[in-house]
Design brief:
single chain; alpha/beta; Rossmann fold; five-stranded parallel sheet; globular; oxidoreductase activity, acting on the CH-CH group of donors, NAD or NADP as acceptor; MDR_fam; NAD(P)-bd_dom_sf
């Protein structure tokens, strides 16, 4: 990671995501968290110090994420998969990196998602 890059962290209010985002802030990155609900997003910004947090339960989630990542995404720390992953992929800059920690959205799936919607 380089200072000034934009990092998006899925499950930002959780144990892993919260540490990833805080370390990135110490390294000078712009950090955008994704969490479920207004209370969790407030915690991510006010307590953890992220630059922004987007509620994945919002009706306008993808648009709000795009607005928060106005320079695109350089690093996406993946914990979730599913619709969160789908919203981040179009925002990835050339040579973006995706460290993969988990794909919880699909843990109980009985079959892979349909269509060519995954890398």
């Amino acid at each position: 990671p380089k200072a000034g890059e934009t990092l998006v962290v899925a499950a930002a209010s959780g144990a892993v995501g919260s540490v990833v985002g805080q370390v990135a802030k110490l390294k000078g990155l712009r950090v955008v968290g994704i969490a479920g609900g207004a209370d969790k997003c407030r915690y991510v910004v006010d307590e953890l110090g992220f630059d922004a947090c987007i509620d994945h339960k919002s009706e306008h989630f993808a648009d709000e994420l795009a607005q928060a990542c106005f320079k695109g995404v350089d690093i996406y720390f993946e914990n979730v998969g599913g619709k969160v992953f789908d919203a981040v992929v179009p925002l990835l800059n050339p040579k973006a990196r995706i460290p993969l920690c988990g794909l919880i959205a699909g843990y109980n799936a009985h079959q892979p998602p349909s269509g060519p919607d995954r890398l």
